[in-house]
Description:
By secondary structure, the chain is mostly helical. It has helices at about 15-30, 35-50, 60-75, 85-105, 110-115, 125, 130-140, 145-155, 160-165, 170-190, 200-205. It folds into 2 domains: about 15-105, RNA polymerase sigma factor, region 2, helix turn helix motif (Rna Polymerase Sigma Factor, Chain: A); about 120-205, Orthogonal Bundle (Arc Repressor Mutant, subunit A). It contains 11 helices and no strands. It is globular and about 55 Å long.
Amino acid sequence: MSRLSLVTSRPSDALRDDDADVELVQCIAAGDRAALETLYRHYHRRLDRFLTRLTRRADVIEEVINDTFWIVWQKAGQFRRESRVSTWIMGIGYRCALKSLRQHGADPVDADEHAQGAHSLFDPSAARELNDWVSKGLSRLSGEQRVTLELAYGAGHSLEEVAAIMECQVSTVKARMFHARVKLRNLLPVLAGHGGVRADHAEETESDESE
């Protein structure tokens, strides 16, 4: 089922963008607030989209973004380019989000509401043939699976980078992607009205992931 490969290639200018981001981080480490503002503007939309995979609360999302860049301001001097700047920032954002959600209590994304915006997970030019029923299928995934797909296919991070951001093993990332594909493969024919297994049963088939 080729449609479920959902592969989005990394932009060709990713390395050039990272060089520019590294320069900004170095300026931030030297106390340049204008550089922090530039980096904030560059990543705000990306972080906002990413965090909607975890919560729909705008106040929590904005709080997490602000916390993320406060840490960037404090820790810029410790960045050693062991990863891309985007990986570093998304990792900070992910950890801040988990901490914030624990503080605010459970806040799951509503499946129907998520389905309305799930199309933004993919580059429209690379996936314009996907229909509404694909978005509905994506909304049935667990939060960790949605975040994994967002990082891998939406933001173009490698498996190793996704593992670094989510602080897990590469094997765990692979397992989440595998189970997500299996779940989508079971769900999409049902949501498209072509029969097959029931949607609720398909959800039950993906009960555990290898950690």
